[in-house]
Amino acid sequence: MEGKMSPAVADAVDYKGFPADRSVTGGWVPAALILVIEICERLSTMGIVVNLVTYLGGTMHLPSAESANVVSDFLGTSFLLCLLGGFLADSFLGRYLTVAIFALVQALGTGMLAVSTSLPRLRPPPCNTSATNRCQRASGFQMGILYLSLYLIALGTGGLKSSVSGFGTDQFDEKDEKEKNQMAYFFNRFFFFISIGSLLAVTVLVYIQDEVGRSWAYGICCISMLLAVILFLSGTKRYRYKKSSGSPIVHILQVIVAAFSKRQLKYPATIAFLYEDSPEISRIQHTDQFHFLDKAAIMAEGDNDVHGETSTVNRWRLCSVTRIEEVKMMIRLLPVWATTIMFWTIYAQIITFSVEQATTMERSIGSFQIPAGSLTVFFVGAIMVTLAIYDRAIMPLMKKWKGKQGFTNLQRIGIGLAFSIIGMAAAAVAEAKRLSVARQAGEGAAHRGATLPISVFTLIPQFFLVGAGEAFLYTGQLDFFITRSPKGMKTMSTGLFLTTLSFGFFLSSFMVSLVRDVTGGKNGQGWLADNINYGRLDCFYGLLAALGTLNMGAFLVCARWIKQESPKQGLQTGSATLKSSSMEDTC
């Protein structure tokens, strides 16, 4: 480093719009305030999700597979809306306002859910087993109110999640070695602390839902989110704000349109003739990959819009090399994006069918009955233990022996995928054992609502393995998508990362429907029967383990390609590359 660092952060401003002073803005204190709002978001979302399948089946009287799909679709929509949140943050609101506004939307949704679950008119009457074995299903109006509440929460979650991690990393300056090291630990600690919110959700909140009342638990979620917003706003003067360079979606479309409109033009003799107007310090080295996009930088007649005596470049006709390379960087994220979707399909089973499995098993410890949704405490515990071991043991050892800050982001993703496959295999074995007990117990003990003579702790391995997998994969994904994306597209890349969760949950919903239709036959009692005691959930888990193995092979091929093709960002003058920028090659 040459001399002392400037007191002002080069690419950030304070709340008044002046250059941010590093001594009074940024760092761990404002990052911690951002973490609080994410903890409360996780508290609300997990508190609803992990026990929602039991509410849909036990109170709203939906079939098993349909209940699982409602939960999967809710989660899928939540993460898909991250793209909308990212677009609004980059184009209009900025990350700070996006977090604040959508946190309030989520608080509104949880408040509405608390009211809807407290009013008897908004749920069907309890089953009267003495009169009939059939239960009255929730009406369209009752389900409509429930859906309205859930999807308000989904909207709030999407907008909040798209910006909260990016706004957290904005509080650290990559050009300052000390802050750069702090940001390296931010990814793991970010996930560790929000796991605390998950832990509270699957223990305290689930217990309150089952023993006190769901409306009380959801009311707590609403109040905690409102308090988190107040705390978040209190840090306004301490935050660093990064200036937006416009919507990355528009930038990507401009490159594609410009390249397509000039598809008939010939490439120049050297890249020195390609258009470039970015400042030298922010230019990105030209790469030969996705060469067809380079035609967007070929200068031709009609590229300028004339306004009187002045003219401006028409960005839909001519784009700079740096802008094109930013699009190429986003394209390079897609193979990893596609091959991590399967993990979240497996994850969906842990918070739906695995919880339903738990409702049929012996859950008593003395006089205390463990809520079925609280079994996910082993899932969250696995995440926290794994992150703690990685942060305190693996990272220091690898730094000492190999000089590296732990596993690379691609390695962490691969480890997470491997854990998920083993977890599904363990789930298939546990379910086969549970079904064997159900068959031996006879018709009476196997009906819906009965408790089978098998301990719920049989399910612990699948919760623990998939939880450990999430610890590696989530932090690896977050690191990969943020560090491999252009600076002006980090919010969008975070949204892109979160859509892997969305598509994973939607894929789960699709597979559940497909498997049910294919295996159900005329009586609808196939692998995914209305009563899981009469189905073959073990076969479904085995299918997911097999698909996960195929997906793992595809990921290894993609990871090898990315390591070979990963470009270095740098300065370009003509056809010469002078030096690489501060963006790390994390492979």
From TrEMBL:
The chain crosses the membrane at residues 70-89, 96-119, 139-160, 190-209, 215-233, 333-350, 370-390, 410-430, 450-474, 495-515, 540-562. This is Major facilitator superfamily (MFS) profile domain-containing protein. GO terms for molecular function: transmembrane transporter activity. Keywords: Membrane, Transmembrane, Transmembrane helix. Pfam families: PTR2 (PF00854). It is a multi-pass membrane protein. Coiled coil: none annotated. GO terms for biological process: oligopeptide transport. InterPro entries: MFS_trans_sf, POT_fam, PTR2_symporter_CS. Belongs to the major facilitator superfamily. Proton-dependent oligopeptide transporter (POT/PTR) (TC 2.A.17) family.
